[in-house]
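Researcher: Re-running this chain for the archive, since the previous output was lost when a drive failed. Same request as before.
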Amino acid sequence: MAALVRVVGRALLGRAAPLLRAERSISGGGARWGPVRPGLPVPLSSPLAGLTRAFRIKEPPKPKQVDRWTKKRALFGVYDNVGILGGFQIHPKNLIVGPKWLRGWRGNELQRCIRKKQVVGDRMFLEDYHKLNKRIRYLYRRFNRTGKHR
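Model: Regenerated structure tokens:
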């Protein structure tokens, strides 16, 4: 039955009509894909529209239930007033400290990875150690093949 309706619809509309073309809407919604046949009020989901497959209409995502009192959210901005309460004696950037083996040391990523392997490599988990070695191998090849440091 559906095949008969499709055949009749194509015979009425003609095979030479373009099936898919971008069309801009007046409301500024961007390009819409669908048949452009002026004067025929045929819905796109109809078999008479001549489309090979039906459009999939996505429904909007359901709103997520968010816990507003997680530790991260509850403590957000807790150190913003350090300067006010501390008489501006210490800057908040001085409260941020890195690992001991990186303090006061400068270098690129390859040098940093090599230093990390030397200092804490024996205490690393096996998978992390393996990833660090892979990163060192990749960076070694990259630094030796490209850049001003060749």
